[in-house]
Amino acid sequence: MRIAGRGLDQGTTSVPFTFDGERLTGRAGDTLAAALIANDKRVVARSFKYHRPRGILTAGSEEPNALVTVGHGPQADPNVRATVQELYEGLEARSQNAYPSVDFDLMAVNDLMSPFLGAGFYYKTFMWPKSFWEKLYEPVIRRAAGLGALSGLANEDTYEKAFAHCDVLVIGAGAAGLMAAWAAARAGADVILADEDARMGGRLLAETEEVSGQPGHAWAADRVAELAAMDNVRLMPRTALTGAYDQGTFGALERVGRHHPHRPGKPLECFWRIVARRAILCAGALERPVAFPNNDRPGIMTAGAVRAYLNRWGVVAGRKVAVFANNDGAHRTALDLMAAGVDVSAVIDSRAEAQALGDYKLFAGARVIGTRGRKGLESLSLRQGDRTLRIEAECLAVSGGWNPSVHLACHMNGRPEWDATTLSFLPRSGMVPGMVAAGAARGQFSTAACLADGARVAADVAAELGLTPADTPVPDAEDRPYRIEELWAVEGRGRKWLDFQNDVHVKDVRLAAQENFRSVEHMKRYTTQGMATDQGKNSNVAALAVLADATGRSIPETGTTTFRPPYTPVSIAAMGAGAQGMGFAPRRLTTSHKASVDRGAPMIEAGLWYRPAYFPKPGDASWQEACNREVTTVRTAVGVCDVSTLGKIDIQGPDAAALLDFVYANTFSTLKVGRVRYGLMLREDGHVMDDGTTARLGEDHFLMTTTTAAAGLVMRHLEWVAQTLRPELDVVFTSATEHWAQFAVAGPKSRDLLDAVVDGGLDPAAWPFMACGAVDVMGVPGRLFRISFSGEHAYEVAVPARHGAALYRVLLAQAEALGGGAYGIEALNVLRIEKGHVTHAEIHGRTTAFDIGCEGMVSKKKDCVGFATSRRPGLLEDSREQLVGLKPVDPAGRLTGGAHLFAETADPVRSNDQGYVTSTCHSPTLGHDLALGFLANGRARHGETIKMVDHLRGVTTLARVCEPVFFDRKGERVRG
Amino acid sequence: MRIPCPLCGPRDRREFAYQGAAVMLDRPAPDAGDAAWDDYLHNRANPCGETRDLWFHEAGCGAWLVVTRDTATHEVTGAELAETVASS
Amino acid sequence: MSVANLVVLSPCDGLLPGTIGAVSITETTPGRITAILPFKGQDDAVSVALKSALGVGFPAPGRSQAVGDVRTLWVGRGEALLMGADCPDLPGAACVDQSDAWATVEITGTPVEEVLARLVPVDLRAATFDPGHTARTLLGHMTASVTRTGASAFEIMVFRSMAETLVENLAHAASAVAARS
Amino acid sequence: MGVSGGYSGFRVLKEGVFGQKGWKPVWRDPDPKPDYDIVIIGGGGHGLATAYYLAREHGLTNVAVLEKGYIGGGNVGRNTTIVRANYFLPGNSEFYSHSLKLWEGMEQELNYNVMHSQRGLINLFHSDGQRDAFARRGNAMVNQGDDAILLDREGVRAHLPYLDFDTARFPIYGGLYHPRGGTARHDAVAWGYARGADRRGVDLIQNCAVTGIDIEAGRVRGVQTTRGAIRARKVAIVTAGRSGQVAEMAGMRLPIESHVLQAFVTEGLKPVIDHVVSFGMGHFYISQSDKGGLVFGGDLDFYASYASRGNLPMAEHVMEAAMTLMPAIGKARVLRSWGGIMDMTPDGSPIIDKTETEGLFLDCGWCYGGFKAVPGSGFALAHLIATGRHHEPAAKFRLDRFRTGRGLMDEEGTGSQHNLH
């Protein structure tokens, strides 16, 4: 209910929203949780395992219970913390994990079964009969488990990622954080102040204490305004730091567009990568509940949350409130409630010497031993000495003490240390290099201590950065000591819940210990304690204490589990922003792209590039018909194909030839100027890395061509060789791929075509096979290479890329005039298979020069990368699978890629496996299928008939082994 | 993770390609024998602690670096141009 | 340079200019671009030769130099681009024509740093990245050259084939920034 | 023999009625004896399975498993739980096939529910060339006697309708479907083998770090530990993530570089992904746990590391792959990330072999494929230790293959030298 006169945003506008379809009203500045409390909604969720009714426990992102789904359709966002979600007009929230409704959930039958469903029960059953796991048990378990549901629809919202850099990153804008940011900024540091809350101020917004004579929230607002006015400060509200990574890199999630109705185009969230020279962790502390019997009823909340709801939002979760604690927080809560006119029915303090600080009924040295109320707290039982009392209460504020938020400090494997005074884990220095903690995050719990600590730490950090700390006065504030007594679990009948969401209670932890899951990691994994969406923020320390008790060890001896990123969960859409659809990788387009698309060519991806598959014509029955036509065009007339995607590396210098001799298996220093040579490049492990042609443009000037796919790798490899293995070589190189548009012109009429476009015509005598040189193409200085991948008389002509689109159109027009036309990579593939040229289908990383029949190319007269290892005995054995050609015995027989090869009469099983097919095509030139493949000892088996078996496609074909060249074996056409 | 490129200054790890232990700089002679080549190409000290390894500033200046680093903590204590190391 | 038959198309033809929110993106035409790669021990000689011919030397890592429209831009280890002038005779260096290799755009406007912070991992804040500073780095998933040309202006270069992706990435980032205001 | 008693649905009901008081320790916590026949260094999945099969298959029970931390605390407790037999190179093919068969009988064999769920695995491909490469793989799987089905685009859509078939950067051409592939509850595998070994008399000794390996005259004599010296006739190094350091105690340098591999799990969600989906182009794979979390991962961070934690670039890359492939999971929130230490061999395949020291055995180099191999590796190493002969399906996992070049198993085709996988 709403308390008149309380809250920071009194009198602001009312905000309509719905919860489970019911129309409700909250007020501006509310979180959804505050608005639900204002509307007396008690059961807001069901727990994970037993489907117990649960209410709101906390007022922050650590909330384990109040998870809801916000929005509908593709916008539906499951597992949103009602305690974080800001209210806005029209907000649509639904409860989760309940059927038919959160008030009446059929799955609550699980709770009745709970005596049988103790920790790890599932490891001990559901094993018979064997097949029932997938068919019955698992589907039932899966449906019962899970929390919210995804919509099943593709994301339609905008998310973004960004980088930020600063001198000092201050994490958390409470008392310590505001002071730290202020002090660092005044010293001249570039400061980022990030806080996961929409409003900066931390606990100052939730408490009634004054700072410097002002209400704490007012002091905070002044500091925020002051910081906002400074050029060297960037305020990042609604931004949760999610992870600490190496060298001062932090992940952070900003909720950009979650606090107002959906605005198309505006990002919902931004995932930040923040690089900071120093970081100050001012993340505060989280209050922990106490494990007492039936401590999970709606209405039972942390005391700090009760104060936050009252003081910040002016709401309280019941007409009568009781308080139960092992520290002074109990009294503070009672006083705040009473000041607001709320009926405080009892203050139960486990400490025997506790004194009342006001006019309330105090039970010192007492404990809560039970609660009642099916859908919400109605009363509780307490025991004080020998007497047991029942107290009426609709809300119970519980404090088991505070855990400093050390999580980020632990992200680099550092372990916090146990502090026996505050009964909490504190960060050690240096756990994250460059990060220091201040304020409550390191166990300083009074407002005054937090303010002073923030200022002091920031001054130290500024000095470390070489800045001069400015004098930063520390304001007056409350400075009460933190007095706490150990209290983790209270004995009594009923389950004493630890992990509210995963339904882990004290007995589960004890059972784990009883079964010898004594390591804290074993206990966690066996019971699922701490594995819920709060990652144990509310429960781990208490569970650890229970385990310590059950195993007769101290808490420090028992240890902690590891905190790992993210601190608060991060949506995949935020961290993966920009990649949906085409954004996953750049698209590289050739200058002929538009012309190909205009001709209806399907464009297919090849190493980030797009290339035309084939050029359909009206009436084509299939792609095969187009492909056949293009192959025949090249074989009989002339075809044009954009080959700009192949990598081109310009290599110059007195030692250019020496470099090539070292990176290629064969020799390039003997290549004549104006000539091109095919080269084979090995990895240092002796296998083939890439192949291509290299042209000698001048005595000290080469142009290397790589395959499209390996261009980047080859560049990296050349840099490797030049910088580290052969630094003495005087040679430089740079990629020239993008400057040139290059087109293959292939076919018996290719010379005629080029004769028409090359200025001055093409002198056959000057352009023998494998010649290269400069030409002018229609007035544009270009290059011409007489090389062939198709096996035809062919050229590649290159011009600067600005002329590429125009030249392609000219070449096509000329080709068409000669009865030719464009060909795509389907035809290119057929042409090269007919000629037995390998691609990465054959040089797939596991094959050697020996395997592909190029062992003779590996020069024995010089060293090269991969030379020594290629001589290993295992890489030169005849039994290796060697490149062969395959032709179907029956010309109608099909050959399929990825099929395996067997002796003609052998069963197609592994032990008989003799090889496999790498590339296949239908050859329109020869009228039947062709294949390249690898066959054990294949070079010695030409002429043999073998069996090709493709189980997956249901094809078995007898094939003749042959030399891997099917067409123009003597190479007369390329030279013709 | 950030690598201090001697030419570009500290840069995000995403700009670099990695190539393992800096022993790759000590390439054996072609006739050093199978054992030497096996050791060069395959066997590694693989320390848990300080190591020197090779990084390529692929999306940056194109320099190969020898980085001194701790494999247990990810602390980076230095980076040199591999060319300088290899030439010395 | 062009002739009637071979029409010239710029890398961002049909994609730019564009204005999104408070930033404008335009394609620029730096003129002739030559990659200059000095041979061993020739760095100084090449720089002196450049300087005497054109008034700009071989730039230090991360820097560019300019005299009028003639610029030198460091683009990597041992490599700079000479832009806006024909390459003089430099016997101490490999000189490779790259005039058509790059898509070059200028992005300007008050929130330009915010827009680029969505794509570029390098610290581009004015305090650390002055006019004339240049970085080889990533822009999205592309390698890029990023140079500050003014208080609210940057020049971005990526390989020509990725011009469309560049424009899309910049437009996306600019839209997201604009949608916040 | 054992202390924990048999497990059954009936027993679960009975203990429920009696307040769970009858459950006994799943394993004992014995002090180390001064002398064992066999010492296994490493109480992870492989070490525990080895101990189990030594006892079960070979009757060897005077065996200790030495674990420096807690049982199952390494990669078996920190992985993406995928179980499959879809390798294609000789050596790997028969090994993983055998391992999967052991998985299929594991629960009944161990009397422990490891929740092995054969929900089917689909490897997507995005070009004609990749289709042929996957066909080669699938045909090898069928040759081996395992299952594989080549799906076209519509076949994939029938299984995985939520993928982006229309606008993704790498269009989906089809997939290789492995119906017997799936997942298992990773911790339970370690616990099941531990319980089984303990029940047969093997000593599982936790918090016992090996600090030295005693070798005399070329023969192993025992180990030094933080809990004293232990003599043994045979010693096996089964310490994924620390193979290099432990082997160094025996004077060996291994063909291994240790790397970090990150993985991620989201908050619990109602069932949305029913298969294991692998997207090779994006180095991304995903499944949904029975608890509802989406469990997914990607490629190595690619730098040598023992830190068990990764960095953002690869984490972001993995999320980006998720968004381009299945934008319907964008609103799932990553709850936890972690990093495992992967002992990477040059060719990406493991080593189960004797060493030059007599009585010293090596089981290492599982790269990022160790979980599915747990039963097969344990079975094969137990066989090698007990008989001195390689178990046939694991006979190609030899240490000397890098020196000879014979029998390299480079499944990815990226090279048989470091840092190319």
Bin the helical content of chain D.
25-40%
Q: What's the quaternary structure here?
A: heterotetramer
Mean of all residue-level pLDDT scores of chain D: 96
What structural class do the secondary elements of chain D suggest?
alpha/beta
Q: Give unreliable regions of chain A as ranges.
A: none
Instruction: Count all strands of chain A and give the number.
Output: 50
Please tell me what the overall shape of chain A is. Answer: elongated
| CATH 4th-level superfamily of the largest domain in chain A | FAD/NAD(P)-binding domain
Number of helices of chain D: 11
**Integer count of domains of chain D:** 2
Q: For the residues shown, what is the average pLDDT of chain A?
A: 96
Please state roughly what percent of the residues of chain A sit in beta strands, choosing from under 5%, 5-15%, 15-25%, 25-35%, 35-45% or over 45%.
25-35%
Q: How many separate helices of chain A? A: 22
Tell me about the largest β-sheet of chain A: 7 strands, mixed
Structural domain tally of chain A: 7
CATH classification class of the largest domain in chain D: Alpha Beta
The proportion of residues forming helix of chain A, as a percent range, comes to 10-25%
Low-confidence stretches of chain D: none
CATH superfamily of the largest domain in chain D: FAD/NAD(P)-binding domain
Task: Please outline the helices and strands.
The complex is a heterotetramer of chains A (976), B (88), C (181) and D (421).
Chain A: E1 14-19, E2 22-27, H1 32-38, E3 45-46, E4 53-54, E5 67-70, E6 77-81, E7 91-94, H2 109-112, H3 132-144, E8 159-171, H4 175-186, E9 191-194, E10 210-211, E11 214-215, H5 216-228, E12 233-236, E13 239-245, E14 249-255, E15 269-281, E16 285-287, E17 300-302, H6 303-311, E18 320-325, H7 329-339, E19 343-349, E20 362-364, E21 366-372, E22 379-384, E23 387-392, E24 395-399, E25 402-404, E26 417-419, E27 424-426, E28 435-437, H8 447-464, E29 497-499, E30 504-505, H9 506-514, H10 520-527, H11 540-551, H12 555-558, E31 570-571, H13 572-575, H14 593-598, E32 603-606, E33 609-612, H15 623-636, E34 639-642, E35 647-652, H16 656-663, E36 676-682, E37 688-698, E38 701-706, H17 711-725, E39 732-735, E40 740-746, H18 750-757, E41 772-777, E42 780-785, E43 794-800, H19 804-817, E44 821-822, H20 825-835, H21 867-870, E45 881-888, E46 900-903, E47 915-923, E48 928-936, E49 945-950, E50 955-962, H22 972-975
Parallel strand pairs in A: 1-7, 8-9, 8-15, 9-12, 15-28, 17-24, 18-19, 18-24, 19-20, 34-44
Antiparallel strand pairs in A: 1-2, 3-4, 5-6, 5-7, 10-11, 13-14, 14-15, 16-25, 21-22, 22-23, 26-27, 29-30, 32-33, 34-40, 35-38, 35-39, 36-37, 37-38, 40-43, 41-42, 42-43, 45-48, 45-50, 46-47, 46-49, 47-48, 49-50
Helix pairs in contact in A: 4-5, 4-8, 6-7, 9-10, 9-11, 15-20, 18-19
Chain B: E1 2-5, E2 9-12, E3 17-21, H1 34-41, E4 50-56, E5 64-70, E6 76-81, H2 82-87
Antiparallel strand pairs in B: 1-2, 3-4, 4-5, 5-6
Chain D: H1 9-17, E1 35-41, H2 45-58, E2 63-66, E3 82-83, H3 92-104, H4 106-110, E4 121-125, H5 128-143, E5 149-152, H6 153-159, E6 174-178, E7 182-183, H7 186-199, E8 203-205, E9 210-216, E10 219-225, E11 228-237, H8 243-249, E12 257-266, E13 276-279, E14 284-288, E15 294-304, H9 312-325, E16 333-344, E17 351-354, E18 360-364, H10 374-387, H11 401-404
Parallel strand pairs in D: 1-2, 1-11, 2-8, 4-13, 11-18
Antiparallel strand pairs in D: 3-7, 4-6, 5-6, 9-10, 10-11, 12-15, 12-16, 13-14, 14-15, 17-18
Helix pairs in contact in D: 2-7, 2-10, 3-10
